[in-house]
Write a structure and sequence with these properties.
Layout lengths: L14 E2 L3 E2 L4 E9 L8 E8 L3 E2 L4 E4 L9 E5 L8 E5 L5 E4 L11 H4 L10 E9 L7 E10 L2
Antiparallel strand pairs: 1-2, 3-11, 4-10, 5-11, 6-9, 6-11, 7-8, 7-10
């Protein structure tokens, strides 16, 4: 059977006649150097987005091989939910890139809605935080996060 579907997102992100495009893309790109002594509980704050920002699926994280032994991973989330955007990114592999948002089914959600500790938009800004997990990063290297978002 043929389907005829229309994708639905935040209404204010569609073009509005006479007002131009309502969803102007904003963003940032941040890079930091993880040291060879980074413990498995290290955290890295990459930047802030408005809590109502719709983080675009083009947002990504890239990293060097950060371990010669062990299996460190990197999770991305907020201060209250450390893996709400993505989790388990393997840092012991060759330089890699992954989407900041793990599940494509979540594209289009507002930033606060990823955080499982929140039941409504708190207003203000949310930090995009990377958390080192499972093992130390014993070789050190670069991690870059590029965040693209729109404000509804």
């Amino acid at each position: 059977m043929a389907e005829n579907l229309t994708a639905v997102g935040a209404a204010s992100t569609d073009p509005v006649p006479g007002s131009g495009l309502a969803g102007s893309v904003k963003g940032f790109s941040r890079t930091l150097e993880v040291t060879a002594a980074a413990a498995a509980t290290s955290t890295y704050t990459f930047g802030y987005v408005p809590s109502n920002a719709i983080i675009l699926g083009l947002s990504k994280v890239s990293w060097d091989d950060l371990a010669s032994t062990g299996s460190p991973t990197l999770d991305f989330g907020t201060a209250t939910d450390d893996d709400c955007f993505n989790d388990g990114l393997d840092l012991a592999t060759a330089a890699s890139t992954a989407s900041l948002i793990k599940d494509i089914a979540n594209y289009g959600k507002q930033a606060w809605d990823y955080d499982t500790t929140l039941t409504e938009d708190p207003g203000g800004k949310l930090a995009i935080i990377g958390t080192l997990k499972d093992a130390a990063a014993n070789t050190g290297g670069t991690v870059t996060v590029e965040v693209l978002y729109i404000i509804p």
